[in-house]
Amino acid sequence: MRLFTLIWFGFFFSNISAQQLSNGFDPASATLSTNLNTTTSTLTTEVKQISANSSTAVENLPEAIDIRVFPNPATSKLRFNVSDRIVGHMVRIFSVLGSEVMSYELVSPHDAIEVSTLQEGIYLYRIMDKNEKTIFTGKFNKE
C-alpha cells in the first residue's frame, strides 16, 4: 500500500504544470487524469525547479548583545551585566498591565537597579538605545 501511495503521489505531482504552480496550485482541488490501461515497467518523474527571489540583508543584522540580568526572582536589587556599548542606555520597567513603573540609565557594565519599592509580582523590562529603540526585553519576578 505504501509503495502504491508513493508512486501515485509522485505520478500525480509529475503532471503539475509550471503555470499551475505559479498560480497557487492546490493539490486538494486537483484531479488526476491518466490512462491506467498502459503497461510500463519504469516510472519516470520530471522534477521541476521552483525558485523564488527574495532579498536578504545580512549586513543589517545587529551584533550580538551580551546582557545578563539577575537574580530572578529579585528582592531588593536587579543586577545588569552588560557590554560596554550598552552603558548609557535606558532600562524601563513595566507592570504586566503595561504601565511604566521605573526607568534607570545604565552607568556601568555592572550596574544594579533598586527594586525594593516595587510590589511583589511579575515585571517586564526594556533596554532602550539613545533613539528610544528597544534593543532587549525580558521579565523578572519581584518577591
Could you write a compact summary of the structure shown?
Helices cover 13% and strands 31% of the residues.
Report on the structure:
By secondary structure, the chain is an alpha+beta fold. The protein has 2 domains: 1-53, no CATH class; 66-142, Immunoglobulin-like. 13% of the residues lie in helices and 31% in strands. It is built from 2 helices and 7 strands. A 4-stranded antiparallel beta sheet has the order 4-3-6-7, with no helix packed on it. The protein has a 3-stranded antiparallel beta sheet with strand order 1-2-5, with no helix packed on it. The longest helix has 13 residues, at 2-14.
Helical content (DSSP H or I, runs of 4+): 10-25%
**Would you list the SSEs in sequence order as H and E?**
HHEEEEEEE
CATH class of the largest domain: Mainly Beta
Mean residue pLDDT: 73
CATH fold-level label of the largest domain: Immunoglobulin-like
* SS element count, helices: 2
CATH architecture of the largest domain: Sandwich
The fraction of residues in strands falls at 25-35%
Placed side by side, the strands forming the largest sheet appear as 4-3-6-7
Number of domains: 2
